[in-house]
From TrEMBL:
Monomer. Its EC number is 2.5.1.75. Belongs to the IPP transferase family. The keyword Hydrolase does not apply. ATP binds at residues 5-12. GO terms for biological process: tRNA modification. Keywords: ATP-binding, Magnesium, Nucleotide-binding, Transferase, tRNA processing. This is tRNA dimethylallyltransferase. InterPro entries: Dimethylallyltransferase, IPT, P-loop_NTPase. The gene is miaA. PANTHER family: TRNA DIMETHYLALLYLTRANSFERASE. Its cofactor is Mg(2+). The lineage of its organism: Bacteria, Pseudomonadati, Bacteroidota, Chitinophagia, Chitinophagales.
Length: 299
């Protein structure tokens, strides 16, 4: 069972509810919550939530480890082969669409890219900004420029890295036929009215600041050039530490960029077929999931 949707929609609570109902475990498909150095800024499940249901791919890797969709596919499939021995149902949850796509459909293997290419791109981005990144992709990878996530610096840098390292667009590695899987998947999409979702995002960012996001970001300053830190919630505070933004402006920018990210997530998931969309505000969502299971079985 897959539970997908934008940030702040309530995926973690729904996944725990489903995992408890089916007496099973949760596999995360979040590209940032896997890093043990990142906590508040990636909305990692709380200690209480982690106790409520066993979680995998949470704080399982270091920011110094290489992680991408293709590596996640290998990691997740190996883990699922072990977990399905004990559990007939596994709950996979996350908002990283490409990771879920890799899990369900597979990715073509991408040749290893020299780390120096990644380091050069990240350093240039940190100096020249997203406009430079857009210009580089328009010139070197027009396919990604036209169809890729052109407001997501992490995805954009990965695309440029692949193009410079292999001579092919990253999108070429995502176009092949779906791979056979040893499991069936029911895919649930969670959504809320846009105004409600955006308000939840704004409130979550304020809560993160109250929980100590600024202190966490400051402790990560020495790692600011690593791939995992090229993301919303940290980059804005790094600009604040550099004197480029006030604290108030940095918080507002985190809220704005998170709303934009949620919009991109929704755009991605709405393009996917076979998602059963449910209202995340419903007080009891498991009965709706059971109805979706019955509908899938009919088809």
């Amino acid at each position: 069972m897959v539970i997908a949707g934008p940030t702040a929609v309530g995926k973690t609570a729904t996944a725990i509810e489903a995992a408890n109902y089916f007496n099973t475990v949760i596999l995360s498909a979040d590209s940032r919550q896997c890093y043990k150095e990142l906590n508040i800024g990636v909305a990692r499940p709380s200690a209480q939530e982690l106790k409520a249901a066993p979680h995998y791919f949470i704080a399982s890797h270091s920011v110094h480890d290489t992680m991408n969709a293709a590596l996640y596919e290998t990691y997740a499939l190996g883990l699922l082969r072990q977990l399905f021995v004990q559990h007939p149902v596994i709950v996979a949850v996350g908002g990283t669409g490409l990771y879920l796509k890799a899990l369900l459909e597979g990715m073509d293997p991408i040749p290893p890219i020299p780390e120096t290419i990644r380091q050069t791109i990240v350093a240039a981005y940190n100096t020249k900004g997203i406009d430079w990144l857009k210009a580089e992709l328009e010139k070197k990878d027009p396919l990604f420029f036209a169809k890729g996530e052109m407001q997501n610096p992490q995805r954009m840098m990965r695309a440029l890295e692949i193009m410079e390292g292999t001579g092919q667009s990253i999108l070429e590695y995502q176009k092949k036929n779906k791979k056979a899987r040893f499991f069936d998947a029911l895919c649930i999409g969670l959504e809320l009215p846009r105004a409600v979702l955006y308000e939840r995002i704004n409130e979550r960012v304020l809560a993160m600041m109250n929980e100590g996001l600024e202190k966490e970001a400051k402790s990560l300053l020495p790692l600011r050039t690593v791939n995992a830190l090229q993301t919303v919630g940290y980059q804005e505070l790094f600009q604040y530490f550099d004197g480029m933004l006030t604290q108030t402006a940095a918080v507002a920018l985190i809220q704005q960029n998170t709303r934009h990210y949620a919009k991109r997530q929704l755009t991605w998931f709405k393009k996917q077929q076979d998602l059963y969309w449910l209202n995340a505000a419903r007080p009891q969502i498991v009965p709706l999931i059971l109805s979706a299971i019955k509908e899938k079985e009919k088809n």
